[in-house]
């Protein structure tokens, strides 16, 4: 299982790495899309899963193919999030063990990602995790603030 500790958002470089690092969990042989994080980790995923999970990816992949880099055989999408956040998010979309979220900080980062890319499944699942955790009683005010910010 993956433990998420939070991250900083950074701008993507927009260039293809010479020796790309590929996520060990997301390197599917039949992948047809590469998502590259700001720290140059590549995730070889499926357009169908990304499109059905995220309205932003659906629109981007169906309408805006000009902005996708195709320097390899697969289209490449650069994102501004670091690899630990992308990996955690993809674990909600693929049949892999979900990340272990021990504090509110990584939840906030994932709520932001779910909002940015319009991924209702991540938002819904995080709400369930939050409502069943001890964080509601341990960090009541902060939990309320998160609920208010993300209209939960």
UniProtKB/TrEMBL annotation:
Residues 29-94 form the BTB domain. SUPFAM superfamilies: POZ domain. It holds the Pfam family BTB. InterPro entries: BTB/POZ_dom (IPR000210), SKP1/BTB/POZ_sf (IPR011333). Residues 1-23 are annotated as: Disordered. Residues 1-11 have a biased composition (Polar residues). Gene3D superfamilies: Potassium Channel Kv1.1, Chain A (3.30.710.10). This is BTB domain-containing protein. It comes from Sistotremastrum niveocremeum HHB9708.
């Amino acid at each position: 299982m993956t433990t998420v500790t939070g991250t900083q958002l950074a701008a993507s470089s927009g260039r293809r790495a010479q020796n790309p690092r590929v996520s060990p969990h997301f390197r599917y042989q039949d992948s047809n899309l590469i998502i590259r994080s700001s720290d140059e980790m590549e995730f070889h995923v499926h357009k169908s899963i990304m499109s059905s999970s995220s309205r932003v990816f659906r629109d981007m992949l169906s309408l805006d193919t000009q902005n996708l880099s195709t320097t390899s055989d697969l289209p490449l999408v650069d994102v501004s999030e670091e690899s630990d956040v992308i990996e955690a998010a993809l674990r909600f979309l693929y049949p892999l063990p979900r990340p272990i979220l021990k504090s509110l900080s990584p939840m906030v980062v994932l709520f932001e990602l779910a909002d940015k890319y319009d991924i209702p499944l991540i938002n819904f699942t995080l709400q369930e995790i939050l409502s069943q955790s001890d964080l509601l009683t341990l960090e009541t005010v902060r939990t309320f603030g998160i609920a208010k910010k993300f209209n939960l």
